[in-house]
């Protein structure tokens, strides 16, 4: 670990502590930092996730609901320019004991997250909830815009059209390249423009 920032530890809440507190709903408003919040070319900037959530004790259940937010950055899949965006997600989850027993009656825990045990203590660990929500919301194939055609469709023609059969070294005389020269002049094109 190269950072001493909290990496998810502040997403773990002792069940005993939650139950001991007099208030029924606990408000969590802070940032957490999770590693590996990334898919394809998109990643959460610094792994930072802002939490604005409530934890409510309800008999055997712990209800977790509210908003989480992140900023992400990635590459447009067509023009490879940098793309960024924000995620604002709602979460609404239930935690309950993994034995599925409530007052001796078995109930379905399929849609619930189980409590975890850390150092002999039952805890509610929100990391999986937060991580799954963010990963599902990250764009798998980011686009700078729906209309993006790439930096210059003529510069990235299909494989067939870039096959040059003649061996003329002065390719700038090739009318196909002359078109590109004009574009370069018009747009002050520089190769750095497309390098991230
Ligand atoms: Zn693009």
Condensed summary:
With 196 residues, the chain is an alpha+beta fold.
How would you describe this protein?
With 196 residues, the protein is an alpha+beta fold. It folds into two domains: 9-137, no CATH class; 160-194, no CATH class. The protein is built from three helices and twelve strands, in the order βαβββββββββββαα. The strands form three sheets. Strands 2, 3, 4, 5, 6, 7 and 10 form a seven-stranded mixed sheet that branches. A hairpin with a 2-residue loop joins strand 3 and strand 4. It is elongated and about 65 Å long. Residues 157-172 have low confidence and may be disordered. Bound molecules: zinc ion. Residues 76, 78-79, 81, 143-144, 148 line the site of zinc ion. The site of zinc ion has 7 residues, from loops.
How is the topology of this model organized?
Elements: E1 12-14, H1 15-20, E2 25-33, E3 38-39, E4 42-44, E5 48-58, E6 61-75, E7 82-96, E8 101-102, E9 105-106, E10 113-114, E11 116-118, E12 121-125, H2 127-137, H3 175-187
Parallel strand pairs: 7-10
Antiparallel strand pairs: 1-12, 2-5, 3-4, 4-6, 5-6, 6-7, 8-9, 11-12
The structure holds zinc ion.
Order of helices and strands: EHEEEEEEEEEEEHH
Biggest sheet character: 7 strands, mixed
The number of domains is 2
Helix content: 10-25%
| Mean residue pLDDT | 78
Q: Helix count?
A: 3
Note the beta-strand portion.
35-45%
Name the ligand types: zinc ion
In angstroms, what is the radius of gyration? 26 Å
What structural category characterises the helix and strand content? alpha+beta
CA(first)-CA(last) distance = 27 Å
Q: Point out poorly predicted stretches.
A: 157-172
Q: How many beta-strand elements?
A: 12
What gross morphology would you assign? Answer: elongated
């Amino acid at each position: 670990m190269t950072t001493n920032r909290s990496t998810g530890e502040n997403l773990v809440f002792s069940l005993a502590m939650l139950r001991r507190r007099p208030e029924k709903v606990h408000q969590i408003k802070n940032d957490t930092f999770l590693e590996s919040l990334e898919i394809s070319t998109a990643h959460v900037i610094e792994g930072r996730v802002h939490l604005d959530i409530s934890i409510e004790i309800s008999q055997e259940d712990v209800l977790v609901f509210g908003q989480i937010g992140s900023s992400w950055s990635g590459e447009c899949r067509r023009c490879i320019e940098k793309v960024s965006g924000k995620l604002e997600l709602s979460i609404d989850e239930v935690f309950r004991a993994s034995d599925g027993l409530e007052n001796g009656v078995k109930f379905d825990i399929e849609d619930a997250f189980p409590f975890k045990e850390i150092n002999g203590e039952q805890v509610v660990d929100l990391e999986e909830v937060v991580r799954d929500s963010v990963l599902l919301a990250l764009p798998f194939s980011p686009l700078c815009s729906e209309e993006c055609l790439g930096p210059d469709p003529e510069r990235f023609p299909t494989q067939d059209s870039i096959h040059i059969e003649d061996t003329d070294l002065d390719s700038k005389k090739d009318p196909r390249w002359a078109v590109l020269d004009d574009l370069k002049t018009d747009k002050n094109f520089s190769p750095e423009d497309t390098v991230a």
